[in-house]
Write a structure and sequence with these properties.
The protein is built from 22 helices and 16 strands. By secondary structure, the protein is of the alpha/beta class. The protein folds into two domains: 357 residues, Glycoside hydrolase, family 3, N-terminal domain (TIM Barrel); 147 residues, Rossmann fold. The strands form five sheets. The chain has a six-stranded mixed sheet, covered by helices on one side. Helix 8 packs antiparallel against helix 18, helix 14 packs across helix 15 and helix 18 packs across helix 22. This is beta-N-acetylhexosaminidase.
C-alpha cells in the first residue's frame, strides 16, 4: 500500500490526542508501509508476560507483537532489564504496559505503597488524584513501562458491584470527573500514557466482567449526563487510550433500530455502534481503543472465539488485549481477513493508530528504554512520594458513626481489646499479608485477645471489641460481604456480634458498603485500603493522634430496603 492510500488522513494522525510532528508522521508512514499483513496482525496483539527471562523476552520480541504487558509486582531489576531487552530487540518498538491501580495488589512493588482511588476521593482534594497519577507515571516509567491501564472512570453506583467498589473514585459524577481529570494531568505531565476504563461505564451491574457480560442499564439522558461527561472530559484532556469494556449499553439506539447491532446485546468490546457511533462519532475520540482482557467470560460468552476475535477489531478495537493463545488468535484474525469478517480497512486503521500512539510516546526517537539509575532516588519510593501517600492516608479515614461515643481509644480506658480480624487474605492471584494494626495497637499499650473462629464469643475481662476487615473492590473477586463465617465460625456462630457483648467498633480497610450488613453496629470507620500508611493512619485516628478528616465519596447503605 502506498502512502497516498492510507485509510487515515495525515490530519487525523496528527490531530489530538497524538499531536504528531512531521518527523513522527513520517515514521508512522514508513513503518506502516514496511509491514506486511502478518506483521500488521502482530501489531494488534498485546499479551501478558509472566516470565521475564531473556529466553521468554526474546521469543516475544521475535514475534513483532504490538506490545507486552508485565506486572509491577516483579523486581526492579527484572522489570528494567526486560524493558531494555524488549526495546533493543523488537523491530518496531513495543508498547510496554502495566495496571498501576495502586492499593495492595497494584502498586509498584519496588515503589510507594499508595492508597486506591476511593481513598484518594475520600480526601476530597483532586490534587491527591494528580499526585496519584504522577507517582504511577514516575515509578512505572523508571521500571520501563510506557502505559498504565488507569484510571478507572467507573461509578460505584451499585454497592454490590465488587469489581468496581474501591477501584472507582466515587458514585458522584462531578467528583469522579474532577478526580479523573486531575489524575490524567499527573500521569501525562510525568510522561506516562493513561487509559480510561471501562467504556461505556461500569458500576450499575453487581456482576463482574470476568465471569459474565455486564450491563450499563442507564437511560441515555442519564448516560450523557454522567459517563458521557466523564469520557468527554478525558478526551478533552487528550487521553490516548480508552478501554472498551465487556459491558453493554442497551439504551443506545442511534442510527439503527436493530437491537442486534445497538448497545443491547453486544458489549462495547464487540460493538461497532458503541465504539464507532458513540465513542468516535458523538464524543469525537480519535485515540486508540483497546479491548478489555479477552479471556474474560464477558467476552468469550458472546460467541465462538474464531468469530469474536476478528469481530473485536472490526467493531472498532485497535488492540486485542491478553489473547488466550497468541498463535490461535492471530490465525483467527487471518481467517477473518480471508472471510471478510475483518476488513483490510479496519486492520490498517488499527495499525496506523497504534503506530501513531507509539510515535506520540517518542518511541521512534533514539531514547533509552529506562531512565538512568541516578534518577532512582527521585522516581522510585522517594521521600516526596511517601509523603504524598501519608497525606492521602491521613486524609481519607472516615468516621461513619460513633453512636456510643467510644472514640478516641486510650490504653487507660480501653486497654483490653477483643479482636476479630479477617486473616489469610488474598487477592485473586496471590496471598496478602496480615494487617499490622494489632501490633501497632500493642506498641501503644493495648492488649489484644483474638476471637477464635469456631468458638463462642467470650467477652470476659475485655474492655472493647474490634473488627478489622480488609477486602477491597477487586476484579476477579466474587465476594465482598461481611464474611461472618471466617470471623466467627460456621453457623450458628455466624450470628454472633461482639457489640451485643461489649462496646465495639468496626473498621473496614476496603469496601465502604459493609454498613448494609450491620446497620446496628454502633461505631463504624471506613478506610478504603490496607496499605501500611492507611493502617497507621487508622491507628492514629482511633487513638486521637489525628482527626477523622475523610468524607465518604459514596452514599452508604444502612440496611434499608432497596
Amino acid at each position: 500500500m502506498t502512502t497516498n492510500s492510507l485509510p487515515l488522513s495525515d490530519a487525523t494522525l496528527c490531530a489530538a490526542p497524538f499531536h504528531l510532528d512531521a518527523r513522527g508522521l513520517d515514521w508512522v508512514k514508513t513503518q506502516f508501509n514496511a509491514l506486511g499483513t502478518e506483521a500488521k496482525i502482530a501489531q494488534l496483539i498485546l499479551p501478558m508476560c509472566r516470565d521475564l527471562s531473556d529466553d521468554s523476552i526474546d521469543a516475544l520480541a521475535a514475534r513483532g507483537l504490538g506490545g507486552v504487558h508485565r506486572f509491577p509486582s516483579y523486581s526492579e531489576e527484572e522489570l528494567r532489564h526486560s524493558a531494555q531487552r524488549l526495546m533493543q530487540t523488537c523491530a518496531v518498538p513495543p508498547l510496554l504496559t502495566a495496571d498501576i491501580e495502586m492499593s495492595e495488589k497494584a502498586s509498584v512493588k519496588a515503589g510507594t505503597a499508595f492508597p486506591n482511588q476511593m481513598a484518594v476521593a475520600a480526601t476530597g482534594d483532586p490534587e491527591n488524584a494528580r499526585r496519584m497519577g504522577a507517582i504511577a507515571a514516575r515509578e512505572a516509567g523508571y521500571l520501563g513501562f510506557g502505559i498504565s491501564w488507569t484510571p478507572v472512570a467507573d461509578l460505584a453506583l451499585n454497592f454490590r458491584s465488587n469489581a468496581v467498589n474501591t477501584r472507582s473514585f466515587s458514585d458522584k459524577v462531578d467528583q469522579t470527573l474532577s478526580m479523573v481529570c486531575a489524575y490524567l494531568d499527573g500521569m501525562q505531565d510525568d510522561g506516562l500514557v493513561a487509559c480510561v476504563k471501562h467504556f461505556p461505564g461500569e458500576g450499575l451491574d453487581e456482576r463482574d466482567q470476568h465471569y459474565v457480560t455486564t450491563h450499563n442499564t442507564m437511560a441515555m439522558d442519564d448516560w450523557y449526563a454522567s459517563f458521557g461527561r466523564i469520557y468527554a472530559a478525558a478526551i478533552a484532556k487528550d487521553v490516548r487510550l480508552v478501554m472498551a469494556g465487556h459491558v453493554t449499553l442497551p439504551a443506545y439506539r442511534r442510527n439503527t433500530g436493530d437491537a442486534a447491532v445497538s448497545g443491547a446485546t453486544l458489549p462495547a468490546s464487540l460493538n461497532a455502534n458503541l465504539l464507532g457511533e458513540l465513542l468516535r462519532g458523538e464524543l469525537g475520540y480519535n485515540g486508540v481503543i483497546v479491548s478489555d482482557a479477552t479471556g474474560m467470560a464477558g467476552f468469550t460468552s458472546c460467541g465462538a472465539r474464531k468469530d469474536i476475535v476478528p469481530l473485536c477489531i472490526e467493531s472498532g478495537c485497535d488492540i486485542l488485549l491478553f489473547p488466550r493463545d497468541i498463535d490461535e488468535d492471530m490465525q483467527f484474525l487471518r481467517d477473518g481477513l480471508d472471510s471478510g469478517a475483518l476488513s483490510q480497512t479496519r486492520l490498517d486503521q488499527a495499525v496506523l493508530r497504534i503506530l501513531a500512539l507509539k510515535a506520540s510516546m517518542g518511541l521512534h526517537l533514539d531514547r533509552p528504554a529506562v531512565p538512568l539509575e541516578d534518577r532512582r532516588a527521585r522516581l522510585l519510593a522517594s521521600e516526596e512520594h511517601r509523603g504524598w501517600a501519608k497525606g492521602v492516608a491521613e486524609g481519607c479515614v472516615t468516621l461513619v458513626k460513633d453512636t456510643q461515643s467510644l472514640l478516641p481509644l486510650s490504653p487507660e480506658r480501653h486497654r483490653r481489646i477483643l479482636l476479630a480480624e479477617l486473616r489469610d487474605r488474598r487477592s485473586p492471584s496471590a496471598p496478602l499479608p496480615d494487617l499490622e494494626i494489632p501490633t501497632m495497637l500493642e506498641q501503644l499499650g493495648f492488649e489484644i485477645t483474638r476471637v477464635v473462629p469456631g468458638e463462642p464469643i467470650d467477652a470476659t475481662g475485655q474492655d472493647i471489641g474490634l473488627y478489622l476487615m480488609a477486602e477491597e473492590g477487586l476484579s476477579g473477586k466474587e465476594h465482598l460481604g461481611p464474611q461472618w463465617e471466617r470471623l466467627h465460625g460456621a453457623f450458628p456462630l455466624t450470628m454472633q456480634r461482639m457489640w451485643q457483648h461489649l462496646p465495639t467498633l468496626y473498621v473496614s480497610l476496603g469496601s465502604p458498603f459493609l454498613t448494609f450488613h450491620m446497620p446496628d453496629c454502633p461505631t463504624f470507620v471506613n478506610a478504603y485500603c490496607a496499605v501500611r500508611p492507611v493502617q497507621q493512619a487508622v491507628v492514629d485516628a482511633l487513638t486521637g493522634a489525628i482527626s477523622f478528616r475523610g468524607e465518604s465519596p459514596v452514599e452508604l447503605p444502612f440496611g434499608l430496603p432497596l
